[in-house]
Design brief:
alpha/beta, Aspartate Aminotransferase, domain 1, Aspartate Aminotransferase, domain 2, 4-stranded mixed beta sheet, 3-stranded parallel beta sheet, 16 helices, 12% strand, globular
């Protein structure tokens, strides 16, 4: 595909409103859009997913071939080979989604009733649901406010004789502190499962995340940087673990066949040929998209870092590549004349800049108490352990982060550099008018 055609498909056609951004407005006394002024941006950011002729051709080939199940077709194996090679892993197992990749990985390690798994409180619920599916107990370790990742300095204090696994998340595409986490795992003989569901092509010391621990998991859900609507994958260099994962995801069969011999418990968590062929085709533009996000994010960070009260998420020194599934920052209202974050977000939206407040404290979600009050958990665990869980799992730093976080999605980093100028100018504009907005 020519460069011009790729660019047109990336930014969208004029008829769909996805035009290159206009030049950012100069600083001045213009009123913020939320107060009746003109917005900084009046067109949409790039759409998602990006679709080209190669996806259509490949999809139709699978459709007409009639082999839609991975047990009969070749598309899943082709994608597994492609993704494993790209990440430098010995094995890749494609799965139905990222959640199932986590469930399979925990099952392969024998995680079950009575076990504890260390997790971050600032993550999507799937990380914790996978633990609960095995009737294990999630143990939350507080967040590093500078990086928004699990604070590896606090992991060791959370380890007990019941701890069986450490499950860090490379949140937003930025690698967690893997040097520290892997060292703790080695010291306490605990396997590490990397939740890399948001971290496609991210790197720690020039090694792709998902290949550092015992197992690594990806999601290919519709919002992800590599996506097929749904889908997931497990990466590992351990052939024995790979075979267990392969069996578990195929109803406990001993190989990839469709016979009626079983060697363990399992579930049907297989990817379809349609998902797999989309991933192979979408993969062809992932590197270029990733580079564009990195470049735009670096440019945006340089501008936002100059604005009082705005603190872009820092990366650890060992993080040599950030996937930027999310561009995350902390908003501190003191730098904006005490303007509440909710009002800041509304003002930013009014300027034509989509944004989000991010996650709420996962460790405080009511469903956890309901789960621990269930018949199954009460049958397995002592009442004292369950009743004392909330007190043990306080994460005050994360509580504060959840009051400060602001997100931009990965698609906002796929346009021209002028888009970054507009994001920064919108924030600066709100900053200039923050005293008046705080009083309104």
């Amino acid at each position: 595909m020519s460069g011009d055609l790729t660019r047109r498909r990336l930014l969208g056609a004029a008829s769909s409103g996805l035009l290159m951004a206009k030049t950012a407005q100069p600083a001045g006394s213009e009123q913020p859009a939320i107060s009746g002024g003109s917005p900084v941006r009046t067109v949409s950011f790039p759409g998602w997913p990006v679709i080209a002729e190669n996806e259509e051709r490949a999809w139709m080939k699978v459709l007409r071939g009639g082999k839609w199940n991975r047990l009969d077709g070749d598309s899943a194996r082709e994608f597994e080979d492609t993704w494993a090679r790209a990440l430098g892993a010995k094995h890749c197992l494609a799965t139905a989604n990222g959640t199932s990749a986590l469930i399979i990985s925990l099952g392969a390690l024998g995680i079950g009733p009575g076990d504890e798994v260390i997790v971050p409180p600032y993550t999507f619920v799937a990380t914790v649901n996978a633990v609960l599916m095995h009737y294990a107990i999630p143990v939350f370790v507080d967040t590093d406010p500078d990086t928004l990742q699990i604070d590896a300095r606090k992991i060791e204090a959370a380890i007990t004789p019941r701890t069986r696994c450490i499950l860090p998340v490379h949140l937003g595409g930025s690698p967690a502190d893997m040097d520290a986490i892997l060292e703790i795992g080695r010291k306490h003989k605990l396997p590490v499962i990397e939740d890399a569901c948001q971290a496609h092509l991210a790197e720690w010391r020039h090694r792709k995340v998902s290949t550092l621990g015992a197992l690594g998991c990806f999601s290919f859900q519709a919002s992800k940087n590599l996506n097929s609507g749904e889908g997931g994958a497990i990466l590992t260099n351990d052939s024995d673990l790979y075979r267990v994962c392969q069996s578990f995801h195929n109803n406990g069969r001993g190989d990839t066949g469709s016979g009626f011999g079983y060697v363990r418990n399992g579930a049907n968590l297989r990817i379809t040929e349609f998902q797999a062929v989309l991933l192979t085709e979408q993969f062809k533009r992932v590197e270029e998209q990733s580079r564009r996000r990195e470049q735009n994010a670096a440019y945006l960070t340089a501008q936002l870092s100059e604005i009082p009260g705005i603190h872009p998420a820092r990366m650890y020194p060992g993080a040599t590549r950030n996937a930027y599934h999310l561009y995350m920052l902390r908003y501190q209202r003191e730098g904006f004349a005490n303007l509440p974050r909710s009002q800041f977000l509304k003002a930013l939206e009014a300027e034509g800049i989509p944004c989000s407040s991010g996650y709420t404290p996962l460790n405080k979600e009511p469903f956890l108490k309901n789960t621990f009050d269930s018949r199954g958990y009460r049958a397995i665990y002592p009442a004292k352990q369950l009743d004392g869980w909330l007190e043990r799992n306080q994460c005050p730093v994360n509580d504060q982060l959840c009051e400060e976080a602001v997100w931009f999605t990965q698609t906002m980093l796929l346009g021209p550099r002028s888009d970054m100028d507009q994001i920064a100018e919108a924030v600066r504009k709100i900053h200039r008018h923050a005293p008046a907005l705080a009083k309104s």
